[in-house]
Specification:
Distance between the termini: 20 Å
Shape: globular
Largest sheet: 4 strands, antiparallel
Number of strands: 4
């Protein structure tokens, strides 16, 4: 069974390309859709390993500081909640 998506952000990155950040019950995922009819590329990292990861860098670069801060706040809230 896959993780339930708790929070997500998405945006058009380039023509025919969508990127998405998902926070599940146990991980942060960076999802890259080149063609909506195909399976996406998914980079996934645990909460404990998020800071300093490639996923963190991609979120900062592709979504900007506002969304990055929202991701961090959501992540911290889920960690505190347990």
């Amino acid at each position: 069974m896959s993780d339930v998506i708790r929070t997500n952000w998405s945006k058009m990155h380039r023509p025919y390309t969508t990127i998405e950040v998902r926070i599940t019950e146990s991980s942060v995922q960076y999802v890259y859709w080149f063609d909506s009819g195909k399976d996406p590329n998914v980079d996934s990292i645990s909460f404990a390993n998020f800071y300093g990861s490639t996923v963190e860098r991609k979120i900062k670069e592709d979504f900007g500081s506002t969304i990055y801060e929202e991701v961090c706040e959501s992540l911290e809230a889920l960690i505190k909640k347990g």
